[in-house]
Structures are given as structure tokens and as C-alpha cells.
Amino acid sequence: MNPATPTAAVGDLVTRRLVGHSLEAPFYVSEELFGLDVEAVFARHWIFVATEAEVPEPGDYVTVTLGPYSVIIVRDDDEDVRAFHNVCRHRGARILNEERGSVGNIVCGYHHWTYGVDGKLLHAESQAPDFDRSCFGLRSVHVRTVAGLVYICLAAEPPADFDEIITRVEPYLAPHNLARAKVATQIDLIENANWKLTLENNRECYHCTGHPELQACYFPIYGYQEQDVPAVLRPTYERFLRADADARATYEELGLPYATIEELDTRPTGFRIQREPLDGAGESYTADGTAACKRLLADFPTARLGRLSFHTQPNAWFHLMADHAITFSAIPLGPDRTLVRTTWLVHADAVEGVDYDLDTLTKVWKATNVQDAVFVERAQRGVSSPAYVPGPYAPTEAQVEAFVNWYVTRLEAHLEQQR
């Protein structure tokens, strides 16, 4: 398949997408469709980019790249999280060139225009007498924090449903105290695959036999309806039902919301949230399910809270336990390259080597991420073959279908606006 897809063909590809089947090859290999993904999806929707724990103090910043866009995420002097285009208002130079750091002011290294961490232009040497600094502050980007998670939207008018979603999910997330957590570690992994293959892989457990470390503490029945559970998983499923009954009793006693909310492809900001048990000791993502950090994220009376799982279209998923939390983001780098960033959060006062061992904390998901990178690279190679034709999703892949349907719906909406 030629990586260049004629513009006239894009609408046809979208229109003829077969429900319940994987996408046609150009969606995964075409340079033009990759550009459309950035324009129609990543530049128009709410994108998870960081945690508040990554910018704990005023002046702390991270930068994120979304296609041609570079964005600065910074905590200002009032301790609010702000976002700005990483473009100097003088002649457009890139201002901050590191992925993260700390600044007193934001200074362009080209002609030294200087901005406050609130984006205001403070200094521009040798300007005309009538130069008005107030007209040349950094261009802001919409930013919202959701119980310690930082989302941005590049669109002039972001999807309006995000405020409602925040109201609904914050009661689930807030008890874990992420806004006051700290980063234990962060690992970047480049997957040699289209970002959609990364997300499709994440949205199903049909392949979970390929994750032995994960299966030691995780019930690999994600996506299965009771009638579809195969015989080999039936003992695991029965064990899950017992653990789930115990977990629900605990959640109700502690006043923790746990009911599943799943609105993945019926709105601009698709999302899913659910609290359910883990296997083994039921406390954390470790080899035996015991807590990886002695210092819990909050004043929970027990570590046996299983996992709170949350994900948002198009690029993020999260696991929150009593002892730590893990955030994942997928950032497209090219038609066949995706950055997967994984961040482990612990209590702000937890001490490495005393309260937690970093290898124990990260072992399960480090292994799982590497295994997933192999799977999606194989998928990318397969869809790049002239022999590839879209195949049907299994019932356990319903959330893959929901993701793909959301994606196609967003492309359709964008293309309609362009007509």
C-alpha cells in the first residue's frame, strides 16, 4: 500500500469502514491519514499529557509534542497549571527545547524575549517606543486538571462535554490523592506501530496469555461476558466473582464509587471508568498482588482495594491502587511510531528503598509494556502487507470496536466541517 493516500480517497475509506472489523491498511500506514489523525483527533480533543506530580513547584515544566505542535505545561506562581504554545511571539523560535525542567521565567534563547510563567511578555529588548508588551504574551492552550491528571486541548473551542465528565469521574479518582503524589519513575517506550494499533491492543485482553507477569495479579477476563468465558478461564472467572463480591462490600463500606461508566463512542470525549478487584493478595500490580509501597497514597484503612481503571479516548489509560498509581499515554510520532509513556506515582512522602523497591513497583508493567510493543510491531508489519484485509473482532474485543467507531466518527465529523 502506497503510504500516500489521495485526499479524495480519505472520505471513501471512512465511509466504507465495515462495522465490527479492523480498519483498512491506509489507516495504519498512510502519511496523509497520519496527518489527518493529528489534525482531526489530537488537535481537536482533550489529550492527557502529564500528571500534576511532574510539575510540583512553580516554574516546573514539561513539554509535549503533538504532530507539528509543541506545548509547554508549567506551574505558575499561583500554583495553577498552565499550558502555552512553545513558540516565541517575536519570530516564532522554539523556546524551551528540553522535555522537562524548572525556570524562573521562560526565556527564548534566540533574541531573549522573556515571559513569565503566566505567559505574559516581561521583556523584549530594542523594540519601538509604541511597542505594547501586553499584546505579545505566549499563546495559551486550553488545560484542565482532573484529580491530578493534566489534559490539554489545542482546538479554539474544545469539546464541551469534558466538564461533565470531570464531574462524574473525580469522585472515583480523588480519594487516591494524585494531585499530591510524586513521581517514582517514568519510562518512555517507542512502539514501532501506528498509535491506533497501540490503543486497540490496550482495549482488549484477548491476547493476555502473552502477559505472564500481568496474569499473576490481574484477572485476564477483561471484555468477557459470562457466557463467553472459555473453559480454560472458568476457574479464574469463578475466583474473580468471589473477589468481586468481597471488593464491592469493601467499596460500599468505604464510600468508594465502583460502578462501571462506559461511554466510549457516544460522545466527543469517550471514556470508561470502573473499580474492581485484583488477583492474588488483591492489593497491587506485583508478582503476588501484595502492595508495592508501604506508604499508601491516602489514608485508606486497607490496601486491598484492587484497581480503579480509567481510560479516555484517544490516548490514555490509568490504574489507581491503594499504594500507587500508573498513568499511560500514547503520543503519535509517525504512521508507524508511537511514544508510550508510563509514569508510576507514589505518596509524596514515600521513600525509595524504605517504603518501596523500584524494581518491585515497576516489574509487572515494564514487562507487559515490552511484550505489548512486540505484539503491536507484529501487527504493524502485518497491516503493511498487500495480503492484509480487515478481520472481524471477537465479542471480547467490544472495546476495540468502540475505540475504532469513536475514531471513525471523529474523522467523519471533521471531514464534514471541511466541506
Automatic annotation (TrEMBL):
Record-annotated Rieske domain positions: 46-152
Superkingdom as given in the UniProt entry: Bacteria
Pfam family, one: Rieske
Molecular function per GO: 2 iron, 2 sulfur cluster binding; dioxygenase activity; iron ion binding; monooxygenase activity; oxidoreductase activity, acting on paired donors, with incorporation or reduction of molecular oxygen
Names of the cofactor(s): Fe cation
Keywords assigned: 2Fe-2S, Dioxygenase, Iron, Iron-sulfur, Metal-binding, Oxidoreductase
SUPFAM superfamilies: Bet v1-like, ISP domain
Protein's name in the database: Aromatic ring-hydroxylating dioxygenase subunit alpha
